[in-house]
Amino acid sequence: MAKAKKITFDQHYQQLFAERWESLRHALLQEVDYHCLDFGAEPYYLDRASYIAAEALGVRPGDRVLDMCAAPGGKSLVIAAALAGTGFLQCNDRSAARRQRLQRVLEQSLPPAWQGNLEISGHDGTNFGRYQPAAWDKILLDAPCSSERHVLQSPPHLAQWSPARAKNLAVQQYALLCSAVDALRPGGELIYSTCALDERENDQVIAKLLKKRAEQVQVVSYSSPLGEKTQYGWHILPDQSAGSGPIYFCKMRKKAKKP
Ligand SMILES: C[S@@+](CC[C@H](N)C(=O)[O-])C[C@H]1O[C@@H](n2cnc3c(N)ncnc32)[C@H](O)[C@@H]1O
Known about the structure:
By secondary structure, the protein is an alpha/beta fold. The chain has helices at residues 9-17, 21-28, 48-55, 74-83, 96-109, 128-131, 148-152, 155-160, 164-183, 203-213; strands spanning 34-37, 44-47, 64-67, 88-92, 118-121, 136-142, 184-194, 217-219, 228-229, 234-236, 247-254. The strands form 2 sheets. Strands 3, 4, 5, 6, 7, 8, 9, 10 and 11 form a 9-stranded mixed sheet that branches. The model has no long low-confidence stretch (mean pLDDT 96). The site of S-adenosylmethionine has 18 residues, from α4.
């Protein structure tokens, strides 16, 4: 029997984005729109969409914040700037190599007075819920994802791509998200974000959480300065956001316990 022909990257995203795919594909290959983070040390250039997602967490001075998948650290810088040396920020990432880069970024781009309340750790993010339940005021979960912009710009990654990738990543993303919910204190807030195009890694992860844990979490209404509203969050895509993104993000709150 003839083997079924493997669907290509372009065919898959053409199915998802229809006639928009051509202009989106073109935009993904162009220069990123950077936002300069300059705190008086070494400037750091972060995709404007990433800046918007990190800002959406609404960190206030004094908060205890967990950045669960933090490396290389662009969004950690946004959080550290909001804390300005107060509260506590744990920048976690499972990859040792990426943690080295994270450490360099934090040391080089933050003023010394904002570095005393930071800690870097290398845990598997799925363990926070079990070992630190209800411990954090705010959590950023910038989850590992398909990173299609990167795939499109890298022939070896493009050759290895398969539609199963998003499905497998969605399983990990959901496990990380459940851990984040468990690690959040009642009333605490989180941002779930990815740089994925595929909604299986975005709204569908949130839909699964709401289906299974509606008594624990709710989506927080938020108005992004850039991007398109989705069912639960915002998707900033470079074809319609002057080169920013892709970034998907959704803001959620852990419900207070019933007395
Ligand atoms: C999208 S990147 C994070 C980008 C980062 N937030 C920033 O703004 O620079 C996702 C990160 O998740 C890390 N990661 C993957 N699986 C993880 C896990 N189970 N626990 C903790 N970190 C994980 C990867 O090493 C990678 O650095």
